[in-house]
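User: I've been trying to design a sequence by hand for this structure and keep getting stuck. Would you show me what you'd pick, starting by listing the structure so we're on the same page?

Assistant: Good idea, let's start from the same input. This is the structure you sent:
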């Protein structure tokens, strides 16, 4: 697909915003069209899976960096910033760790070692890390995880300090989903990050994942108020994983509804005092996580299965160019 339109990344840069995409390492390796679209349209990349604990650590002794290195190298070749995702998360943990039943002291050695090894490897090339991802359940309580079991509710404090030790220049984020507007979960996130700041913990921002549904109401004013309260704490905010899934069969009205939602969230981001990045969770619908997670749903991204731009892509370009 040849286009003479100004790429999304260039329109965004003029507005002081980084627009990015989550990168599927296999597609990056095997699909030339994927590489072309990614380099042309996006100024930021997040490894969709390659920097997670499980993919990086097939065993306690071995680190598997090849996929993450490939994404970071591609980003470097194409002037793209990189978000690191995700150092401490309850999901995609290898069994040797998740079922290891480690003691507090063993856990410290393991998790501090993991964070130090991974963050220092990409020092100067990863500008921001999702240090802790999805620590709360949807009611705003602590989500169970090996980290909570080993260290208790202090684990975010510990993880942020360890990441800062490894790269004092990286911007360190707490990242979560369904905490995009003002609700019980985002209240819990707000209370935690305020406590971290009061303790002098090196946290610099909050990631709002923004996994949305085209059939759901979106509350842009509430999202704006949520971003403002984090900004008022002195924190940056980034939209870190946006997609807007539709129910099959996808149709014109669904695509236009999707475009409207992308437009509204981009407008909120642009109007915010500090919303420095807008990252979509994938490049083309073909590689999206959604269909294997939500049967009969998908089409959540800016480019369709064939890599063609959708109305949502045009909507973002219009907002950024206006
Ligand atoms: O690589 C294996 C492959 O070898 C195997 O054959 C295949 C079938 O079992 O699984 C493959 O691993 C899958 C991996 O994606 C790579 O495709 C895992 O099963 C699958 O669980 C994993 O899903 C990822 C999911 O996080 C893990 O929970 C999605 O791609 C990824 O988009 C999704 O991303 C998360 C963010 O990290 C955090 N926020 C929510 C978001 C959506 O869940």
């Amino acid at each position: 697909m040849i286009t003479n339109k100004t790429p999304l990344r260039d329109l965004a840069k003029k507005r002081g915003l980084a627009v990015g995409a989550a990168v599927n390492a296999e597609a990056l390796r095997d699909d030339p069209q994927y590489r072309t679209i990614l380099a042309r349209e996006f100024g930021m990349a997040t490894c969709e899976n390659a920097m997670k604990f499980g993919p990086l650590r097939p065993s306690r002794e071995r680190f598997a960096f090849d996929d993450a290195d490939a994404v970071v190298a591609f980003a470097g070749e194409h002037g793209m910033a990189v978000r690191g995702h995700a150092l401490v998360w309850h999901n995609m943990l290898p069994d040797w760790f998740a079922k290891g039943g480690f003691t507090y002291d063993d856990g410290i050695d393991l998790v501090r070692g993991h964070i130090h090894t991974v963050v220092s490897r990409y020092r100067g090339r990863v500008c921001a890390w999702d240090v802790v991802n999805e620590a709360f359940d949807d009611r705003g309580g602590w989500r169970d995880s090996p980290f909570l079991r080993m260290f208790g509710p202090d684990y975010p404090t510990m993880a942020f300090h360890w990441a800062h030790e490894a790269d004092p220049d990286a911007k360190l984020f707490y990242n979560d989903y369904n905490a995009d507007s003002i609700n019980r979960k985002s209240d819990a996130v707000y209370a935690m990050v305020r406590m971290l700041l009061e303790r002098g913990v090196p946290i610099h921002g909050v990631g709002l994942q923004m996994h949305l549904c085209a059939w759901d109401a979106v509350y842009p004013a509430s999202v704006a108020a949520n971003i403002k309260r984090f900004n008022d704490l002195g924190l940056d905010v980034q939209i870190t994983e946006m997609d807007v899934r539709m129910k099959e069969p996808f149709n014109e009205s669904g695509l236009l509804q999707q475009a409207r939602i992308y437009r509204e969230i981009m407008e909120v981001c642009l109007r915010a005092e500090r919303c420095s990045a807008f990252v979509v969770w994938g490049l083309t619908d073909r590689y999206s996580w959604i269909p294997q997670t939500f049967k009969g749903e998908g089409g959540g991204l800016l480019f369709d299965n064939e890599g063609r731009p959708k109305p949502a892509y045009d909507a973002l370009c219009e907002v950024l160019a206006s």
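That's my pick for every position. To get oriented when you compare it with your attempt: DSSP finds 14 helices and ten strands in the chain. The radius of gyration is 19 Å.
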